[in-house]
Design goal:
alpha/beta, Rossmann fold, six-stranded parallel beta sheet, 7 helices, 43% helix, Isochorismatase-like_hydrls, Cysteine hydrolase, Isochorismatase-like_sf, Isochorismatase-like_dom, hydrolase activity
């Protein structure tokens, strides 16, 4: 029996149509929502999560756009995905940085209990948090097939999206719908 996982990265209001939103993120939202609804397996979410001290952090100094402050409207999943999360009682990983070691370790534990047959990553931003998490999980679980659905990802720019897909492909992450 298949034991597939779908990891939805940072589909939060601030990244879709908020302070760091892009037309590309808005464009992929319907496909991400549909995939989350129909996925035959375990769905988990990550949330980029910052505190009120964001501006004084390393990230805040390099990206001086306040976003995903815990508890604000921008921090929450887009409404349609929040509905999916609730309906599935899906696990959520809050992460203060690009990649989530907690997610990777949790997947290692799940794999030890019941071998994972595939891991698929979708969401935003392809060139920051998607690539960070996909490659980290690939390092933690090198024998588990990891794939990224390019049609359900958006980067900071289309060029950065394409570059991240190429990097992941070079590291044996399968790129589908690219």
């Amino acid at each position: 029996m298949a034991n597939d996982y779908l990891v939805i990265i940072d589909m939060q209001n601030d990244f879709v149509d908020g302070s760091l939103g892009t037309p590309e993120a808005c464009a992929i939202a319907p496909a991400v929502i549909e995939k989350a609804r129909i996925f035959d397996g375990t769905v988990v979410f990550t949330l980029d999560t910052h505190g009120s001290n964001y501006a004084s952090t390393q990230e805040g100094q390099h990206l001086p756009v306040t976003h995903c402050i815990k508890g604000t409207a921008g921090w929450h999943l887009i409404p349609e995905l929040e509905e999916v999360r609730q309906a599935r009682n899906a696990r959520v990983f809050e992460k203060p940085t690009f990649g989530s070691t907690e997610l990777a370790q949790w997947l290692v534990e799940r794999n030890q209990e019941d071998p994972i047959t595939s891991l698929e990553f979708i969401g935003v931003c392809t060139d920051i948090c998607v690539v960070s998490n996909a490659l980290m999980v690939k390092a933690f679980l090198p024998e588990v097939p990891v794939r990224v659905d390019a049609s359900c990802c958006a980067g900071v720019t289309p060029q950065a999206h394409d570059a991240a897909l190429a990097t992941m492909s070079s590291c044996q992450v399968e790129i589908i719908n690219g």
